[in-house]
Amino acid sequence: MAGIPEKLKILLVEDDRTMRQIEIRTLKKIGYTDVVQASDGEEAIRMLEKTRGIDVVISDWNMPKKGGLDLLLWIRSSDRFKKLPFIMATGQADKIHEHKAVDAGVTGFLVKPFADEELKFALGGAFGAEDDESKTEKPVPRLAPSGKVIIRIAHIQITDHLVLGVLKHLMDKGDLVSSHFELEPVCMPGWNPVAKELEQGTVDGACILAPLAMDLYSVGTPIKLVLLSHKNGSMFVSTAYGENRVPLRAMQKDKKSLFQELFKNSSFLIPHKMSVHHMLSHLFLSRTGLVPSMLKGDMYNVEFEVVPPVNMPEFLEKNQKNSGFMVAEPIGSQTVESGMAQCMFLSGRLWENHPCCAVVMQNEFIESYPDAMFELVDLLVKSGKFISENPDAAANIAISFLDPDKKLGLTKPVLKKVLAEPGGITTGDLYPVIADLETMQQYMVENMGIGSTVSLNEFVDSRFADSACESGLSGRMPSVLYSSEEEVLEIAGLSCANAGSRQKLGNNFKETRTEIAEEGKYLTFFLASEEYGISIRNVREIIGMLAITHVPMTPDHVKGVINLRGKVIPVMDLRLKFGMESAEYTDRTCILVVEIPDGRNQKNLQMGVIVDSVSEVLNIRKEEIEDNPRFGSSLDTSAILGMARIGDRVRILLDIDKAVSAQSNQ
Fold first, then answer.
1. pLDDT at residue 664, as a whole number
2. How many other C-beta atoms lie within 10 A of the C-beta of residue 556?
């Protein structure tokens, strides 16, 4: 970067001591060692008034006493300091805050977490240094010698973006063949460079946090969301003590009081402001009666801090005020295994099959190369299914894709565990459900006051995913957010010592199922003209019809077994189980993979049940449910939880455990 000063006296203003140490290390790495420190805006003003020769201020936004914005306004109103370069280095990553800083006269805006090159660039920009790369014209899509268009897609080094690496690997091997494009993944050091590349139009697309993509779109960045890159995949960990080192033991207090003790007056770490990690952490902490925020003041009792994921364990170790973090795997598992923290829940337990990162593309590219877009999304969907069906092979690919320089220390066993663990990251269903994205947007805007509302029907271009996922509901994973206080406390109160084993969690939920079975979320489906519902907690997956291997000497309703990603699962036809007439299977026929207890060994079993079609997920309230009928159904009424009357329709709510284990009526 031409013209950047070789020596600078820097005033670094940051209230978190560990963050200051990391930023000082970063400054030293890029050649700057003369650093004056202040812990808030008031101390920064005193340091400015008594210290000669300060060349630039780098300040956090959220600090006690006087924050970064107030400090900036004071500096710009001072005759002595009004021209002093000021870089806001903050976790306030949304464009609204950036515009506020620009209006106040900020010289540079640096979003946490940032890499050393980003800090160097910001310092250079503060002194008018020219970036040689910025002189280059915006690249246009290029044609390869083959005549195919080259698609440049930015990503970072996390398993959430592995679908891109697997596609590149399978294309290079010839296992997947493209007629219209060649793929060029572009690895970036962090989320903010990815966002910058999208804003500047220097990449054709990116794998990026969905809320961050929405924020870019809200300020006019010409992009569209075309697919998800994964679902689930993050862990919420706690140091198992708060400021008073309260052990997370056998629930001697009620859960709400215990969690308040664990997290009150603490800092909680997140990887980015515009992320589902921020949303779900806020949801959990709020439901325990706490008041979390990125803002600081007496009205808040949990402070969110944005920290690079690789530095989160260091933050926990060095500062007891930090009570935990939520981050994509494998950082959480590594921290738990070190004994430094305890897993409280996987993100997929709080919001089953939730969106996180998405694939977005430039409008110009979509309009210019529609054939390449249809093919790209189709092959990404195939790559996602490859990961879900071949975690061992995908882990091998991940090592070279995510850690080509061997700097992250990733190993195949760790990556395979992350890709295969129950309740963890999933890539078999990448369809961008607008309702799920709306849930994320609505919570963040209305409950957290961050970001702005965008039209998701305009932002999401689903025609490519519609084509690639033409099987409709087949393979679709139901998405359910558990947001009530009772649900959140129950989920977080379960032990995650076994890395979130769904079997263990399922057994714990089963103990309290009778207390909540009549009210909650149900997946509804049809058999003939009747509509039934089962608790979403029992549903593992929805798949289309697969080849079924018949097992001799079994009842008629037991159709045989299927091979689901290497696991043998028995399948029964629910029509026949209930004594109904058989029906031909159609493209709407589905297999619900459900979990039921195995009374012999206290574990859960997976079983497939064939239904005519899947309807929807309903949140059914207790006042909408009537008692079990005494007659009028061919089904043993002990398996009926109740009759849900919603509008002019009635759903029969089933206890799926009893329904599949009851004696056949044939």
1. 44
2. 12
Residue-wise pLDDT tens digits, 242-257: 333 444 443 344 667 7
Indicate where the chain has its CATH 2.40.50.180 domain(s): 517-661
Output DSSP code: residue 634. S
Looking at domain 10-133, which of 3.30.70.260, 2.70.50.60, 3.30.70.270, 3.40.50.2300 is its CATH number? 3.40.50.2300
Find out if CATH 3.40.190.10 is the number for domain 149-232+354-468. yes
User: Rounded CA gap, 572 and 550, in Å?
Assistant: 11
**Spatial distance between the Cα atoms of 87 and 124, rounded to a whole number of angstroms:** 11
CATH architecture of the domain covering 234-351:
3-Layer(aba) Sandwich (3.40)
* 513 contacts: CB under 8 Å, gap ≥ 6: 535, 537
Q: Which pair of tokens denotes residue 295? A: 């803002």
CB 590 within 8 A of CB 544: yes
Chain centroid offset of residue 382 CA: 21
3-class DSSP assignment, residue 152: strand
Contact 156, 189 (CB under 8 A): yes
The residue written with tokens 């809320």 in the block is 211
Answer whether CATH 1.10.1740.10 is correct for domain 517-661. no
Name the 3-class secondary structure at 442.
Answer: helix
Distance CA 145, CA 76 (A): 54
Please say whether the beta carbons of 618 and 646 come within 8 A. Answer: yes
Within 10 angstroms of residue 423's Cβ, the number of other Cβ atoms is 22
Task: Determine the Cα–Cα distance for residues 602 and 591; give it in Å rounded to an integer.
Answer: 25
Predicted TM-score of the model (pTM) = 0.70
How many C-beta atoms lie closer than 10 Å to residue 171's C-beta? Answer: 17
CB-CB contact of 358 with 427 (8 Å) = no
Contact residues for 484 (Cβ-Cβ < 8 A; gap 6+):
287
Tell which wins on pLDDT, 137 or 226: 226
Asked if residues 186 and 200 have their Cβ atoms less than 8 Å apart, the reply is no
